[in-house]
Amino acid sequence: MGRNCTVFDDLRVYAYRAVLEFKRCNDFRGFLQRLVAVANDLRRNPTFIASLPEIEARAIARSIARWTWKRFSVERFAGIQRARGKRGNEKRWADHVPLDVSRPWEAEGISRRTWFRRRQVATNDE
Q1: H or E, element range at 45
Q2: All residues at 6 or more sequence positions from 53 whose CB lies less than 8 Å from its CB, including other chains
């Protein structure tokens, strides 16, 4: 990948995290200055054959700052996190069969209470 793309991708990820901090005090200038500083650090990446010119890094930072400030809010962030949590929860519990459906105590021919008591004792013994 090129220098511009690398700086852009790394900086935008940073901007998503940092924007909420600056939005609390409505400080766009501070946000822009922070992104320019981070972009200047990123442009000197040792894996680049030649570092990205400072003016290009500043332009990338300005572009990301404007876009992120305009389109990113606490509500939007909460919505993104909510959607991620829901997807993760669905994935985690996809193959889960609730005990009330599987009823393993009936297969063993014992009461539900006895089954849970034995399970508790087995867990404590480990």
Answers
A1: none
A2: 43
Whats the size of the chain, residue-wise? 126
The rounded distance, in Å, linking the Cα atoms of 10 and 61 is 11
Cα 103 from Cα 109, distance rounded (Å):
10
Task: Give ∠ CA 52-53-57 in degrees, rounded to 5.
Answer: 75
Q: Which helix (H) or strand (E) holds 109?
A: none
> What token pair was written down for 99?
């005990």
Q: Quote the DSSP letter at residue 25.
A: T
Cβ atoms of 57 and 43 closer than 8 Å: yes
- How far is Cα 112 from Cα 99, in angstroms, rounded to an integer? 10
Q: How confident is the model at residue 1 (pLDDT cuts 50, 70, 90)?
A: low
Q: How confident is the model over 33-60, as a mean pLDDT?
A: 91
**Up-side HSE of residue 4: CA atoms within 13 Å toward CB?**
8
Query: Helix and strand tally (H, E) in the chain?
Result: 7, 0
Distance CA 112, CA 117 (A): 9
